[in-house]
Amino acid sequence: MKEFSTTELKRMTDDMVIQAIGEYVRSARLDRNLTQEQLGERAGVHRTTVRDLEWGKRSTLITLIQVLRSLDELQTLKNFKASKELNPLELAKLEAKERKRASRAKSTEQPETTDW
User: Fold this and answer.
1) How far is CA 83 from the centre of its chain?
2) Interatomic CA distance for residues 48 and 53, integer angstroms
3) Which value, in Å, is the radius of gyration of the alpha carbons in the chain?
4) Where are the domains of the chain?
C-alpha cells in the first residue's frame, strides 16, 4: 500500500482521507482472500458495515479498530501513540530533583515529661 507524503495528506479533504482508509481496508482484506461477509463475522460487524467502510462512507472509530484487529493490521495505528521526549535540560532537572538518600523517620512519640 502506498504511503502518503505530508504534503499529500495536508491537501486531502476529510472525505478523501476516509476514502483512503477504505481502500486500505479493502486491499488488506483482499490480500487475505476474505470476503466482506467473512471479515464482518471476524470483526463482529455486519457485511454492509464492512462495505460502507471500504466505500469510504463514514464509520465509527470502534468499527475501524474491530476491522483492523480482525485483519491483524492494528500496527497501522502505531503513530497514534503519544510520547513526550525530554530534552537534555529537562532530563537534568528531573535527575536533580530525584532523591539521593533516605531521611530519618520522624518520631511521633511525645517526649517524656520530667519533674525538673
Assistant:
1) 11
2) 8
3) 28
4) 12-74
- The pLDDT confidence band at residue 54, using thresholds 50, 70 and 90, is very high
| CA 56/CA 13 separation, integer angstroms | 12
What whole-number distance in Å separates Cα of residue 41 and Cα of residue 67?
10
Measure the CA–CA gap between 62 and 56, rounded to whole angstroms: 15
- Sign of the CA dihedral 63, 67, 70, 72? negative
Say if residues 4 and 15 touch (Cβ distance below 8 Å). Answer: no
Judge contact between 20 and 12, C-beta under 8 A.
Answer: yes
Report the pLDDT value the prediction gives residue 64, as an integer from 0 to 100.
94
**Architecture of the domain delimited by 12-74:** Orthogonal Bundle (1.10)
Q: Is the CB of residue 40 less than 8 Å from the CB of residue 50?
A: yes
Nearest Cα neighbor of 17 from 58, 49, 48 is 58
Q: What is the pTM of this model?
A: 0.66
